[in-house]
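Hi V.,

You were right to ask for the full record rather than a summary. Here it is.
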Amino acid sequence: MEARPPPERGSLKIILTSLSSVLTSLDCILSFHLRSSWFWLASSDITPAEEREGARCITACLSPLLRSGRVEAEMPPPRTGRGLLWLGLVLSSVCVALGSETQADSTTDGLNVLLIIVDDLRPSLGCYGDKLVRSPNIDQLASHSLLFQNAFAQQAVCAPSRVSFLTGRRPDTTRLYDFNSYWRVHAGNFSTIPQYFKENGYMTMSVGKVFHPGISSNHTDDSPYSWSFPPYHPSSEKYENTKTCRGPDGELHANLLCPVDVLDVPEGTLPDKQSTEQAIQLLEKMKTSASPFFLAVGYHKPHIPFRYPKEFQKLYPLENITLAPDPEVPDGLPPVAYNPWMDIRQREDVQALNISVPYGPIPVDFQQKIRQSYFASVSYLDTQVGRLLSTLDDLQLANSTIIAFTSDHGWALGEHGEWAKYSNFDVATHVPLMFYVPGRTASLPEAGEKLFPYLDPFDSASELMEPGRQSMDLVELVSLFPTLAGLAGLQVPPRCPVPSFHVELCREGKNLLKHFRFRDLEEDPYLPGNPRELIAYSQYPRPADIPQWNSDKPSLKDIKIMGYSIRTIDYRYTVWVGFNPDEFLANFSDIHAGELYFVDSDPLQDHNMYNDSQGGDLFQLLMP
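Predicted structure:
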């Protein structure tokens, strides 16, 4: 997709005028404790009519208090100026993000759950319209599923994202922005998805990378709370970052690009192969179990290093690999928003390139090789998903098992001159999300029928499968908890109060169950809705206003700035504000930078309109 020019003044005003319907008085905005209202409103269950009436009442009833300065103690007094008015755009948009939800019904009682979580997988899949990537088994799953085209993670880094969606709470509630704390100790004793299923009679099992290992899951993957018995980690994962990559010199290196001959690597296998084998063994055991099961399988690839069977390179000849459509750092990008991809720079083959810090760029030929290896890793992952789902079929469990497939976040492949995750851009936060529900998203398989036969990505005769049902609505990974509970026939946890640190079981994400009602849709595979009532939230911390060595993964104590971002059907808006790591408090009156991208005219998010000279139009529209 080619980058489009920035919108002209006339089109900008038209877009901004359309946005004006979502704006309410700044008095309404300031009446809320900013941090808690941001997340509480995002998970609210009120109807659109209640939403409108609530906004009117808040403005009418609280404006006198605001004008007299009687606001919450942690809320700084209102300040005039453009920064606060921009904040009004962010938080007032929340007022239209509220939608009604449907509670769980009992038509799917007793269903098993297979949750597949992939590491660093952006929606570079055939079922998401990628014409290059060969992912036939995931595409086949999508053909029997409800696929969400616009799903977003809440923070684009492994541990915070996984803790967020596995607890159903946002990072400002889990208080995990890095890898160095366990939410049950430092935030609250929050229940998790597998814990909730376990407490409702399920046998819960973990294979591979589900929780991020280490401090953030108490070095136990949250055992014994979440799992019926100790989680499984493949023995070969300890070699992932060691010198197992044979370079052009014939020596072994710890490289970024690491296609291997599997027979030559330690133990003669790779972590994702071992995880698939273990998951298959567990499925075979659960076939005869009297209890329903919840099996979470976490795959490592395409996480770096790109260590995968070398034959998958053949699917992607370098002459077919193009660069990102926008490989340059945008002129209007605030330095605080840039991710300097330090973890990639630490790999031996990248170090040998002697790339300047922080902006690079990486040589063109090496950019192609990175993209080649990422896509090859995705196809390797696809074969593992195919083996797992084929076994589910063989065991005749496909007619009694919900399958959810997602990723913890995306991954930049040179867009904006960036690599890896660590930002609020779509390429870092946009994730695949699909649900197969037997008898609901697809007909129950007949005796002997296979829904998920294994498909070989090397088979050039295989045709691209179209997704089954699709939703274009913006959704968030924090919705995974209530949605899986509802689909399985369990009581959907209540939405969280403010604050919710003392509440063990609640959720901040919306229940997506209403999207699974297909009866009156006839032949239209796209689910209707009002996309302008929907918002996805993300955030990312930074230690400084300019890129530095720890900008990608700052420890909590070093966080000085938090980038809060909202994504609507029309725009992505991000405000970078001061942050106190001791109090976990954002200061929205201390605005360091901002970003505004209009999706229709700038889908790649290259033209930042926040500081554009045409901003006077927006300034006038936002005046209370």
